[in-house]
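User: Good morning. I'm curious how adenosine-5'-diphosphate would be positioned relative to this chain. Could you predict the structure with it bound?
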Amino acid sequence: MTEQNGRNVEPCQDLQETWSEICETLRAEIGEASYQSWIKPMRLIGKNGSAVRTGVPTRFMREWIQAHYQDRLSELLDGRGVSGGLDVVIHQEHAPSARPETKPAEARKEDAAPAGPVNGTGIGNGPHADDIGAPLDQRYTFDRFVVGKPNEFAYAAARRVAEAEVVPFNPLFLYGGVGLGKTHLMHAIAWHLRKTRPDRSVIYLSAEKFMYRFVRALREHNTVDFKEQFRSVDVLMVDDVQFISGKESTQEEFFHTFNALVDQGRQIVISADKSPNDLEGMEERLISRLNCGLVADIHATTYELRLGILQAKGEHMGVEVPLKVMEFLAHKITSNVRELEGALNRVVAHHQLVGRDITLETSQDVLHDLLKASERRVTIEEIQKRVSTHFNIRVSDMHSARRARSVARPRQVAMYLSKQLTSRSLPEIGRKFGGRDHTTVMHAVKKVEELREQDSSFNEDVELLRRMLEG
Ligand code: ADP
Ligand code: MG
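Assistant: Good morning! Here's the predicted structure, ligand included:
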């Protein structure tokens, strides 16, 4: 696997300079965090034929760089007269000095620090002051979970796992749309076990965090510790497992962790936004493993459930909310429970701050923008205009054939937002972007998704645009 090469020539001074320059250019493009994680550890080795050869310490890094940065790096080299492309090899002699930011002893100390926010850790975002798991939300307990038709099965399954003496099914796979209570149920299992079985070690974390920890372990050559930590737990809960779609190495590691735990009779609970069979970019063997236990879905909320949740929440807040207002909210805010809670919180906060009674009128007033947003339909034209302004390009470039990155990237963002915010199909979207093919739109969506994961400043840009368009 390692492509060690004895016949490397020392990179000449010119090439070294060119390399440093293009790294700086890329740094500006992808942001500091991604740069520190992926580009900085790359070492220029020399020429391999006409290609520029670089080295990285692990296979994982090589794959990542190949998937995300190789094309751009080649392009940049090309732009400086170095054609012939770039190759990336695994470089064993990658000295620790190549990654001066890594200080294993200190890193390990950080592990003992109090847990950080659930999803707050990003690759390369400096010190990871987190424990192996993520902290639990106080409010996410069984007794605060309102049970109705859409979620009764998932609820019963979760309770079963929490109360069982022997593992009843493995894994418990919970799935459903965003904001429908998956995380709530997982935390509830953990809280229950913490109270009734404090001897058991229960770990809850997001799949995203699992991956970050894995990547970090790889970079710090710490995978033994990593494996040990995960393989010695009694109950492992991994939230939003769709996050590792298409991430092969992480899936592989997850698969092994999974098997090791199942073999030892430990409980695993997984959540995702889709059923195992519908998860794209997942290895077959992992899918079949995920299907092995009990698969329980949470359906979209019904009016009754929404009303029930509002009532329970109102009681908890100790505020008298008129039934009329709750009915109104349950009718209007149908997307998910999180939004519903948000709406109620706003109504109550307004009441407490301003001191006016909660009525239908004040509620409509307070939620004016929210209700408007849920009724309003953003058009592709609006998206194109907004995105063009944001990136400082002409709207006509949304339709043009120009392929320069400075216009292609914004165009991809606009396609992505069109997919997210309108109900238009891929071919329809393609037509609105100068008659492009639906596969181009699909590619754009995927690309933007990747970049969002990888580059926090880009992610913020897109998120900002999305909010502006929705609001
Ligand atoms: P998911 O993980 O499925 O995206 P969450 O578990 O984060 O959703 O739920 C979103 C919010 O809605 C949380 O604040 C949660 O407490 C609340 N919620 C969801 N379902 C229910 C329910 N059945 N009863 C009470 N609160 C709920
Ligand atoms: Mg969740």
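The first strand starts at residue 43 and ends at 48. Strands lie at 43-48, 51-56, 86-90, 172-176, 202-206, 235-239, 267-272, 294-298.
Let me know if you'd like a different ligand tried.
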